[in-house]
Amino acid sequence: MTLVVATVSGHKGGTGKTVVASLLSYHLSTRIGEKVLVIDLGEAGSSTTLLLEEDPGPPYISDFFLGRATWSDVIVVSNLSDNLMIVPCSGEVGPVDPTSLEYLIDRTSKHFEYIILDLPAYPGSLYDPVVGLAEVIITVFNPDFLSFQAVSTWLKRRDFFRRKLILPLLNKYFLFMGDWKDLARDEFGTVFTMPFDAALQFSFARNIGEAYKNASNRVKKDLEVLTYRLQKPLLKVTG
């Protein structure tokens, strides 16, 4: 059974949700051996850059939405792993058609264990129908009140999330930031963490494979914890 996962951050950008989505997809495909499809819906095509050595050229996800390419035309195998594939973005997604995206997910689901939707930060309800296609929603926020409030408000204003598995993830976290972890637990009931790792920010890694190799053991351990939770999506109590 395919598990569809969306990474979101409410209206706050810069939380690192694309790095989280790319790390998670790399970990699942190379360390666990699962077949993973990443659909890059970001405004800058950052997942495409991290998961592929170079821009594959058209067709992109925008071409699929505009009817210029079929669903099979837009799937590219990553050079990082035969188990990792991506629907690339040129940085100009254009209008996102949830019905077309649902069709793409339906047609590809039998080939993948995980489909990961990497969404941009968005105001209002623009991408809500897209998020609604996922069974699991990873809400990524940082230890600052703006991004924390963005996720908290995003969740409170949406009823559909009650039918989903929500995994709040405190990104760029240090161990001495225990107050932030406690605050997140009080607000969301549970929280996963991912440390701020200099190797992922400043190493000039060409792709997420190099970044993963240079990442600390703490990053890899936190990915293992998050992966373990994803492998048990029917559990009602997170943690």
From TrEMBL:
Gene3D superfamilies: P-loop containing nucleotide triphosphate hydrolases. This is AAA domain-containing protein. PANTHER family: COBYRINIC ACID AC-DIAMIDE SYNTHASE (PTHR13696:SF99), P-LOOP CONTAINING NUCLEOSIDE TRIPHOSPHATE HYDROLASE (PTHR13696). InterPro entries: AAA_dom, DNA_Partitioning_ATPase, P-loop_NTPase. It holds the Pfam family AAA_31. It comes from the Archaea. Residues 7-162 form the AAA domain.
